[in-house]
Amino acid sequence: MQENIPSSHEVAQLGTSLFMFGMALGSLLWGPLSQSLGRRPVFLMSLLGGTLFNLGVCLSYSMPSLLVCRAFAGVTASATFSNIGGSIVDMTTERTRIPYNTMFRFFTFLGPPLSALLGAIVVHDADWQWNLRSIPIAMFVVFALYTLTVPETLMSVLERSHSVNIANHDEGMLELAENWVFAVLPSRATLSLVATQVRKSLLIPWVLLLEEPIVMVICFYTSMLYGLLYGSLLFFPQIWHDIRGFTPVQVGYTYFAVKLGLLLSAIIVGCGIQFFDYLRAYDAGKHSPELRLRSGEWSNLFVPVGFFIFAWTAPFTHVHWIGPCIGIVLFSFGMLSVFNSWMAYLTDTYSNNTAAVIAINSFFRCCLAGAFPLFTNQMLSAMTVQGAMSMFAGVSIPLTIAGYLFGIYGGRLRKHSKHAVYG
Hints:
Elements: H1 9-37, H2 39-58, H3 63-77, H4 79-82, H5 84-91, H6 98-125, H7 128-149, H8 155-170, H9 173-178, H10 180-184, H11 188-211, H12 213-234, H13 236-243, H14 248-254, H15 256-283, H16 290-294, H17 302-311, H18 322-349, H19 354-371, H20 376-415
GO molecular function: transmembrane transporter activity
Subcellular location: Membrane
Organism: Malassezia vespertilionis
């Protein structure tokens, strides 16, 4: 891209950062809106807006227009990132929810390494612009499929719609036919009520953050984990290409190690251990949100261990490439296991405000993920690969300890909650 649109490396990376910052802001908009307007209209607006703004990115021939479109693409498309957790809660029960949440988070984490692999292949066989063109094409396909196949899922909206249908039916079909315009268009009172609900719902994420210590702790924990994942993936080109001499396509293939770790985590921990442990406890009447954390806490150790293995094998060319790949598998395995546990805990505890609590969590995660591309090159130059990755491992150690402590004492904190369903 820098060959076609002259710019510095930092400005070229700014497109990714602005997209993630847009995702952060959009999460605060679409999450609360879905609690008032319903899931379906929010997803339709988000998918259509994301398609159009990503199309604008493809048609941009200057860096300012490209960056502006990337930012708005992030804002509009963020419902697909922050609202699906709410839809899963709508369509599932607490007893059987974890496999669906696991698969959603698996594909969420799969996005960055998969896009890196496909991007390397596309740029090698075509050009960088086809990387950008693939996004609106994919989003339009998803928009069409969602429009044709997925109904509204939020119970309050379904009940409201059912009540309106009954009222209209009782008024008589003749009167309805004569006043079809007024039957189709919402009244001023309805619009005023919806506007009031929207204004209130936009404040809910911040209320939960400021009044709920649980939400504050989990937002910090998961944001740091997500930032560490993004930061480590950004090191791959420098490590595998610049140091080890891999071709761009071969660098893309190294992301298979990330995918393998995520897949093993989803199958073994999410759909296996966590699911069946919670199932047995639920049927015995001994379940609690903290069980989501305890059933996967052994995998917490894989995050710092994987980081340290990667840090002290990747930059040394005499070490076989399988060494750092083992580290990658371990930390991606632990990353998804830990993240899945904490987000399941969050959605169970606040199932009455799922979209709002995920929105504030997504805001902080995306902010950190957007910040990392702005300083990774400088970090590598100043600290070396060993130093940077060891710092990541060091940061993950207190996070791991905090996960164990929260699994033990989180119930006490939850009992003092103002908004928790389990409080």
